Amino acid sequence: MSESLPALIALVGNPNVGKTTLFNALTGSSQKVGNYAGVTVAVKSGETYTPHGNKVRVLDLPGCYSLNANSLDEQVAVDALNGQLKGESVPDLVVCVVDSSSLERQLPLTLQVLELGLPCVMALNMVDVAEKSGLRLDPVKLSEELGIPVIPMQANAGKGLVQLKQTFRAPLPPVRESSWLHHHEDSDKARRAFIDQICEVAARRPDAHQLTVSDRIDTYLLHPVYGWLAFAGILFTVFWAIFSFAKIPMGWIEAGQGAFGNWVSTLIPAGDLQSLIVDGIIGGVGGVIVFLPQIVLLFLFIGLLESSGYMARAAFLMDSIMAKAGLSGKAFLPLFSSYACAIPGVMATRTIDSPKERLVTIFVAPWMSCSARLPVYFLIVPMLLSEKEGSWKQALILFGIYILGTASAFVIARLLRGRLGPDDKPNHFLLELPPYRKPQWSYIFRHVADRAWAFVGKAGTIILGLSILLWALSTYPKSDSESPTEQLEHSAMGRIGFVIEPVVKPLGFDGRVGTSILTSFAAREVFNTSMAIIFNVEETDDEVETRIHIREKIAQAKWPDGRPLFTPLSLVSLLVFYIYAMQCLPTSAVVARESGSWKWAIGQFLFMSGFAYVASLIVFQVGRMLGFS
Amino acid sequence: MSHAVVTAPKPESRLTLNQARVGSDVQIRIVDGPACQRLRDLGFCENLQVRKLSGGRNLICSICGTRLAISRELAEQVLVAPVA
């Protein structure tokens, strides 16, 4: 019996039993919660206080079905329990979180944890759901049989928290001998027999199988015909909201930004400082901030789909399509998340059991058009049709862009998967379909707010810095000429463009566009900022440019010989480049970490950038040969 | 040779989970095959009752109040007997 106070507590349990919900309730933090197996892919740590006011650290481990470590996130959980996790010791107390509605299935893991010889407490979560399904639980009997404290709770409603915290103190529950192992040779059979014995007295299930509400919903949502219709409808709604509905708040931001720019220019006398603030900073950062509503909406929908439990159904439906790309339905969530941002997408690949499938998914994830590409698409697509933003034709083109990126990703995945060969150990598709639940709005909103704040933070740091740098490069060294065009040619930016021009000319771009592309290699959305700053030199009045302004400006841009710089063909070429190019430093860093080597990250970067260049080249050159301009 | 009187219960018909009818309740008899460890971890253990909810490329079954989608290869390794 341990006399010392527990300092480190680990939460262990099957996937999707509410470990993270419990963790958030204990620590008051707002880790992302989804109704989907494998939302927690890394160990999270937080602090809580015992009823006596002692501080303890809590680890939220990724879900696992057993301690046999079948996939990477299970391995992480096993390491944490053995104290092999970097910087962590062996936990003083393990809280086995179980979903009481499927207690029989989850007890093997609890027994395995008990066999490790660590002090244990069982958090019998979601007792409300279990009771509704007709399961008769007896926590007292369960506790007697297992020899550990059993706390019935409803973590999402905060019920049972105090009782659980009561166990976080000395003396810790005694470690009991694994008596069930004595009678059998085969430890699996031994556990099974013991569990049968426990369930006989402590968890009685009604004999008749009852069709739950979730089962009934699933008969439609997983139906071979209606299921696909619903799936298409949901995806369409998500995209429609992002591309149409988001226009309204985007208009407010643009108007506010214009007014702010005007107001600032009345305060500061015309000159370099006014130019820096109004053109460089407000124009540059504003050109990116305007996409905030779309990013918020995309994360909101993904959060909603995960939280309600639909994401697992989508993975189930998509399994047959993913199989054509040599992937499984489990690759759907990572790839779909990558439409928002490749970083959480790459992180979510940890739930994929097959290591090779996981590498392939990581490799192609950045081709799922992420939200950072949207600013660029929104700038270019309306120009292509020479009309205002928001028509259905543009929506169609955008849809095509997404399809092109996705289809290319699938083709490459298939080729790469073939080259990597089969896994050493066969992996089969298996997925838990959680019951449908009401979305946990508070967590979704907090998560969306986090992502939005991260985006604004990026605009306030990287993009602000680059905006100032770009403004300086295009302003200095100063020429004596009054003509903005000559000034640009004289500036550092103009000189860089001159050097780049031969490289990008075969793609249909001049040095100015080339410079903008070059500056967007750290983060793609900087392209808009660069274009605004580079082409704004011709701007003389103090009006703040919105994208409409940038478009007006660049539509007038010409080659030195007077031909228009942007033709439909060069715009398509530019779009193709942005669909394929890997221009995101943070993603490369995450890929290197997740794949375990920089080789993959660098290979991916070189491959995607090279592919983008070649694809653009083909589009432009073949297009010209066919007589397009 | 006269027919022996059948006294023992009829040998039960064993199916793989793939062969079980959609919508029927079955009891798991034997879990055997290369992935049986994984199946056991998930709760596919002898004597547990399962309802097969749908078939196809991957099948869905309900086991102890949880719905699981598993591939046909996995389902092939689960032998079941119908429950009356």
From TrEMBL, chain A:
Source species of the chain: Luteolibacter pohnpeiensis
CDD domains xref list: FeoB
Annotated protein name in UniProt: Ferrous iron transporter B
Membrane spanning residue stretches: 225-246, 281-305, 325-347, 359-384, 396-416, 452-473, 565-581, 601-620
GO cellular component terms, semicolon-separated: plasma membrane
Top-rank lineage group of the source organism: Bacteria
GO MF annotation: an example: GTP binding
Coiled coil: none
PROSITE patterns xrefs: G_FEOB
UniProt keyword annotations, A-Z: Membrane, Transmembrane, Transmembrane helix
Annotated ranges, domain FeoB-type G: 6-174
Stored Gene3D superfamilies: P-loop containing nucleotide triphosphate hydrolases
Record's keyword annotation contains Cell membrane: no
From TrEMBL, chain B:
Protein name: Ferrous iron transport protein A
Keywords: Iron
Domain of life: Bacteria
Pfam families recorded: FeoA
Domain Ferrous iron transporter FeoA-like: 15-82
Lineage, opening ranks: Bacteria, Pseudomonadati, Verrucomicrobiota, Verrucomicrobiia, Verrucomicrobiales
GO molecular function ontology, one term from the record: transition metal ion binding
